[in-house]
Specification:
With 338 residues, the chain is mainly beta. It contains two helices and 23 strands.
């Protein structure tokens, strides 16, 4: 979902142009490469990304404003190997996230709100991962979701890989909230999500496969949190790329790396090894830039940088990019009355 469609890519481009030569990740070979490109011409606004549990090397993605369908993409080739159409759900409004639960089901979050809190409710769609990857129609369950403190915009939905509980992170320029769903979602009535934590401006999130970490990304950076008894613990910066439209993040199935996705035709999914996992670092595909020292957006900071003239210039570049983004957003508000 984009409130200022031209502003974000322009801001990211400024940051990448100024900071890119200084903070590129070290180049090294990796077994699964540096990521992949979404080659399907139908995928123009990839807004969510999730590693399949049933099919190694396959990732689920979807467009944000589209028909009720998701795409299974082979990370070795970037080609779509299955298009799954959901039967039994309504017309999606703004699908922003996808996650795979321990029950073997795929959860799609139709949780975006272009007017930042205008919808009285949003939806989650759930369907079993197909045993065979082919174009097909599957029966899905639709869940109605509300928030205990009123409607809001959101782009991140995460299913905990051990408990199966669903979480949503809201998106707000002054900082969002982390919301916890009921222990079990019900297809009847409304599922009330309750605020259990404070987070920065979030465009997507993902739990580690062992359920001990939660990563949340924004336009210019990412944060990692310890997950302790169902709540956010200590946090730290996470190395990630600056992309034209920073929309998605997921762990690889083995937890050794994070994959960062972006909107746009032929968009690139960038692989970044998880520090301490033993995986070799890789250069982000397409000349991506390390956003370690970039601010996480309104409502959150990354902590201290590593020092040096490169870091200072990078922070200045991202600050300029952020100013362009937020200025365009406020200008649009003034014109539309949002």
């Amino acid at each position: 979902m984009r409130l200022a469609p031209r502003a974000v890519p322009a801001a990211a481009a400024v940051a990448a142009a100024l900071a890119g030569p200084l903070l590129l990740a070290p180049a090294a070979a990796a077994d699964d490469g540096d990521g992949f490109t979404l080659k399907d011409p139908r995928i123009t606004e990839s807004s969510g990304l999730a590693a399949s549990r049933a099919h190694p090397g396959v990732y689920w993605t979807h467009n944000d404003q589209d028909e009720p369908r998701v795409f299974a993409v082979d990370s070795r080739t970037g080609e779509t190997v299955a298009t799954v159409t959901l039967r039994g759900v309504g017309k999606p409004r703004d699908m922003e996230a996808v996650s795979v639960g321990p029950d073997g089901h795929v959860y799609v979050g139709d949780i975006g709100d272009n007017l930042n809190g205008s919808w009285p409710h949003v939806w989650i769609y759930r369907f079993p991962e197909p045993e065979r990857l082919r174009d097909q129609v599957v029966d899905a369950v639709q869940y109605t979701v509300t928030y205990e403190d009123g409607p809001r915009d959101a782009e991140a939905l995460m299913v905990h890989p051990k408990t199966g509980r669903v979480y949503i992170a809201s998106k707000n320029e002054d900082g969002g909230g982390l919301y916890e769903g009921p222990a079990k979602l019900s297809p009847q009535g409304r599922n009330v999500f309750r605020r259990v934590g404070e987070v920065p401006w979030v465009t997507d999130g993902a739990f580690s496969p062992d359920g001990t970490r939660l990563v949340l990304r924004s336009y210019f950076s990412a944060r990692g949190y310890a997950w302790e008894d169902g709540r956010l613990g200590a946090d730290e910066r996470v190395r990630g790329p600056i992309q034209p439209q920073s929309e998605s993040v997921t762990y690889t199935a083995d937890g050794s790396a994070l994959l960062f996705g972006s909107e746009g035709e032929q968009s690139k999914v960038v692989r970044v090894p998880v520090e301490g996992s033993g995986a070799a670092p890789s250069t982000p595909a397409g000349g991506g830039t390390d956003a370690t020292n970039a601010p996480s957006g309104p409502g959150g900071a990354t902590g201290t940088g590593d020092g040096g003239s490169g870091t200072g210039l990078t922070l200045g570049a991202v600050a300029l990019a952020a100013a362009l983004l937020f200025g365009a957003r406020r200008l649009r508000r003034g014109r539309t009355g949002d």
